[in-house]
Design brief:
Elements: E1 3-8, H1 16-29, E2 34-39, H2 41-44, H3 51-67, E3 76-79, H4 85-94, H5 99-103, H6 106-113, H7 121-135, E4 141-143, H8 149-166, E5 174-176, H9 211-219, H10 237-249, H11 255-261, H12 267-293, H13 297-324
Helix pairs in contact: 3-12, 4-7, 4-13, 7-8, 9-12, 10-12
The chain binds adenosine-5'-triphosphate and L-tryptophanamide (LTN).
Adenosine-5'-triphosphate binds next to α1.
Length: about 325
């Protein structure tokens, strides 16, 4: 069975973009692959966080992994900080990453270009830690949204570099970008991705949003004057985004079929149908979330997940430390 690994960094509440771009794929993949799904909590603190809010977001994130359908019997679900090897290999990877490579990563460049002050060293070296997150487990595939492809490519470069220098240490993983849902855009500015870091709440449907609120956000989504439900991301980005959302929620229904259904109908009808799909999905997730949060499944999942992940990660870390010459005693 091929192995797959991915993570989410819950710097805020998870939203429809996190679901369609990541979580939903994890769930689909867990039957076919040996799936490792972790919560990238070390990555959260690359930007300032309020500790109480962060704890709540982390807990909700684990609960939402389960509520969205990840099954701890099939997938290994764990918290990054429960496997100390991530930080340790992260440092080792950092020592093998060039400053030039880190400077080219768009996530850091974007923040710098926006003139954000006091960016942390952790944010700059984040891609090295992400490489460690991945390479510890030798996955074949890393499913991510298209904004993360650059980081997986750097991970490949680092794996190849270290294999070349020290012998065969790591499997070189492939990024896996879903065609549909790879980038869900903000509802009130379809030129930007739907994001929890976006200050404007109207553009983002959170998975735990009240259903009425979620419906209102979809109905208020920015569209255009063409009065034509047609998939044209260039000229009709708002409509294309809503079509993406509908298609993903309806088992990758072809855009042509959606165009056919709404031929000659107004945007109101179309948005109502999208809102129905979204609310239906949110309701299912929220019901399950409420069950999970009031049970002991969360703790059980994390402790079993950490045990399984530690076994693999610690063996890999040992192998790496021995190969690069920093380990001297047999463990
Ligand atoms: P955000 O911008 O909301 O803070 P992020 O991309 O920085 O999100 P994560 O929450 O860790 O951080 O993202 C988890 C996964 O979800 C990543 O693979 C990312 O590409 C994907 N993802 C996040 N937002 C979207 C989106 N709007 N559309 C599609 N995929 C997304
Ligand atoms: N960088 C990712 C989160 C992340 C990740 C990973 C994804 C951290 N480590 C390893 C896949 C594999 C993000 O910002 N979404």
């Amino acid at each position: 069975m091929k192995r797959m690994l991915s993570g989410i960094k819950p710097t805020g509440q998870l939203h429809l973009g996190s679901y369609l771009g990541a979580l939903k794929h994890f769930v689909d993949y867990q039957d076919e692959y040996e799936m490792y799904a972790f919560i990238a909590n070390l990555h959260c603190i690359t930007v300032p966080q309020d500790p109480a809010t962060l704890q709540k977001n982390l807990k909700d994130c684990v609960a939402l992994y389960l509520a969205c359908g990840l099954d701890p019997k099939k997938a290994t679900i764990f918290l990054q900080t429960d496997v100390k090897a991530h930080a340790q290999l992260g440092y080792i990877m950092c020592c093998h990453t060039y400053m030039g490579e880190l400077s080219r990563m768009t996530q850091f460049k974007d923040k710098q270009a926006k003139g954000e002050k006091n960016l942390s060293g952790g944010l700059y070296t984040y891609p090295s830690l992400m490489a460690a997150d991945i390479l510890l487990y030798d996955p074949d595939y890393v499913p991510v949204g298209d904004d993360q492809k650059q980081h997986v490519e750097l991970t490949r470069d680092l794996a190849i570099r270290m294999n070349h220098r020290y012998g065969d240490l790591f499997k070189v993983p492939e990024p896996l970008i879903g065609k549909v849902g790879a980038r869900i855009m903000s509802l009130n500015d379809p030129s930007k991705k739907m994001s929890k870091s976006d200050n404007n709440d109207k553009g983002c449907v959170y998975l735990l949003d009240d259903l009425k609120k979620a419906r209102k956000k979809i109905m208020g989504a920015v569209t255009d004057n063409f009065a034509n439900v047609h998939y044209d991301p260039e000229n009709q980005p708002g409509i294309a985004n809503l079509m993406q959302i509908m298609s993903s929620l309806e088992d990758n229904r072809p855009f042509g079929e959606i165009e056919e259904q709404f031929k000659g109908k107004g945007y109101g009808d179309f948005k109502r149908a999208v809102a129905d799909d979204v609310c239906h999905t949110l309701e299912t997730i929220q019901n399950r979330y409420n069950e999970v949060i009031s049970s002991d499944l969360l703790e059980k999942t994390l402790s079993e997940g950490a045990a399984r992940a530690n076994a693999i990660a610690n063996a890999k870390l040992d192998k790496v430390q021995r190969a690069i010459g920093i380990e001297i005693i047999d463990k």
